[in-house]
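Reopening: Arginine ABC transporter permease protein ArtM still failing for me.
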Amino acid sequence: MDFSWLGDPFYQEYLIEGFINTLWLIAVSAIGGLVLAVVVAITRLKGPRPLALTAQGFTTVMRGTPLLVQLFFFYYGVGRLLEGIPGIQDSLIWPLLRDPFFYAALTFTLSVGAYSGEVLRGALLSVPPGEREAGRAFGLTPLQVFMRLWLPRAIQLCLPTLTGEMILLLKSVPLVSTIAMMDLLQAANLIRDETFLVYEPLLLIGGIYLAMTLVLTLALRQVERHFPGMQPERGRGWLPRRLPHSQREAS
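Support: Ran it again with your exact input. Result attached.
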């Protein structure tokens, strides 16, 4: 194994740029996707029928087609279509529209929104109606009931599943190397082409992704443990303690 190329600032620049772009893509897609998930979930539950059917069609298409196909559709399809619009290349937004990062973030945001939206919709349906009725009895407006009671309770119920979605998002990021975006895998490919080393760059990138997955898992686990209503009692763990046989008979 030859890792001497790691000391070359030229290759270090590839890795740093790829790492930063990867982190930015995860952050933008996760935040945008979760916001979109709330919109999709509430639209399917409470929106007018045309909007509810549109949201259902959106989730069906996004969940029923491969992520790589969606990425190609937006980058090669929508991107090339925008190039043909008169005056678009002279506009202020053209630097954004020609950037692969924009289409990668758009694709991942829509994907996270579709998957997480269905998860959140199921969680909203699982919240007992009595909790919302109690909020209305205290004089809360429908918006306050949703923001203070219904949505937090639903997030509490589906937070472990949303954690899994974020980990899947992280492991999907290497797909963006297919649209010439500089991420960690693209950096590894460039290093392989220039050093003729096959395994070393891939092993390094695999180790970085493994470390990122572990850090993300630990961070999200802390969010789960400290989310209101989910923190276990000290010394009790997540599962209820089993009573001794004598106490069970007495009860």
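Confidence is low (pLDDT under 50) at residues 233-251. If you still see a failure, please send the error message rather than a screenshot.
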